[in-house]
Structures are given as structure tokens and as C-alpha cells.
Amino acid sequence: MAELELAATALLFDSDGVLVDSLSRVDDVWTAWARSFELDPAPILPVLHGRPAAETIAEVAPHIDHQLAVARLEQMEIDAVPGTRALPGANRLTSQLAPDVWAVVTSASQRLADVRLAGRVQVEPQEWADLAVSNVYARRVGVNSVDDNQVAVGKHDDPCLLYTSDAADDN
């Protein structure tokens, strides 16, 4: 594989599918979760990746108890973590980066992301900053915590990425 040279002030990585191989487990868990509520998983699987679970659940199953559904799914995903591993090259890459120049941005809850990264990615940034309303989290060092009102949609929303960029420039 050819080496890539990249000039950047900071790097943002998604967790699932970038640092941690959890995508097949995610699909398995969502399938089991859907069936536990007597829902067909087929229309859910194509729309769940890259967004907060609570948002997906509100869209695909507005008729069920939202808090119960989110809590059940999170626990099922945590229980499935032993079936995940760091993706090839993830540890090599992150071990070569100073902890203050990279972050993990994920639509997973902080609790789930912590469990998925623990023991899989050898070198981790040191603090989680809540990018809240959309339940997106950025794990980073040297970037000020993000106020709940600053990111309304999620990690793919331009204001989220611009705020993260601006915050990194302030340090």
C-alpha cells in the first residue's frame, strides 16, 4: 500500500467502520432489536448508520416507548461489543498521532463509543465533549467542550464540522 502524506491541523475519525469493525454487529443488533418490538428490520437497516439511534428509532417506530427502545438498543449494542475489533491499521495510525490532534466523532452514545473503543484502539484522545442535541460526541483534547445548542443535526451536518474546525483553530 502506498503511503499517504497529509498536511492537517487535526484529524476527525468516525469510530464504527473506520477505527472499530462493528458494522456487522450493528446490523445484527438492530435486527434483533427490531424483532424484539415485532418490527420488520428490512426498512430500518438502510437508514440507521451515521445517525443517532434515538433519531432512527423516532423515525421508524414512533409508536413505541422511546426511552425503553433506546435503552434496550444501547444495552444490546454494548452486549455485542465482544464481537468487534480494531480495524487493520487503526492502532498503527492512532499510535503515531499526538492525542491533541485527533478526535473521534460518532453518532453512538458516549457510553457505547467508550465501550467499543476500550481495548480496541490502543491510543485514545483524553476527553469526550458532548455535541449533544443530536447525541453526537467528539472525543478530543485541547478543544473546548461544545454547548448543546451548537450542533442541531449530527456529525454530517456542516455546522458540526465547522464548529469542530473553529474550536481546533482556537487552540
Q: Care to describe what's here?
A:
By secondary structure, the protein is of the alpha+beta class. 36% of the residues lie in helices and 12% in strands. Strand 5 (128-131) and strand 6 (136-139) form a beta hairpin. It is built from six helices and six strands, in the order E-E-H-H-H-E-H-E-H-E-E-H.
Biggest pleated sheet: 4 strands, mixed
Strand content: 5-15%
How many angstroms separate the termini? 34 Å
Mean pLDDT: 74
- Give the strand tally: 6
Radius of gyration: 16 Å
Helices and strands, in order, run as: EEHHHEHEHEEH
The global form is elongated
Q: Helix coverage percent of residues?
A: 25-40%
- Helical/strand content category: alpha+beta
Low-confidence stretches: 126-156, 158-171
Set down the secondary structure blueprint.
Blueprint: E1 11-13, E2 20-21, H1 23-36, H2 53-60, H3 66-79, E3 85-86, H4 90-95, E4 102-106, H5 110-117, E5 128-131, E6 136-139, H6 158-169
Parallel strand pairs: 1-4
Antiparallel strand pairs: 2-3, 4-6, 5-6
Tell me briefly what this model is.
By secondary structure, the protein is an alpha+beta fold.
Keywords:
171 residues; alpha+beta; two-stranded antiparallel ribbon; 6 helices; elongated; disordered C terminus
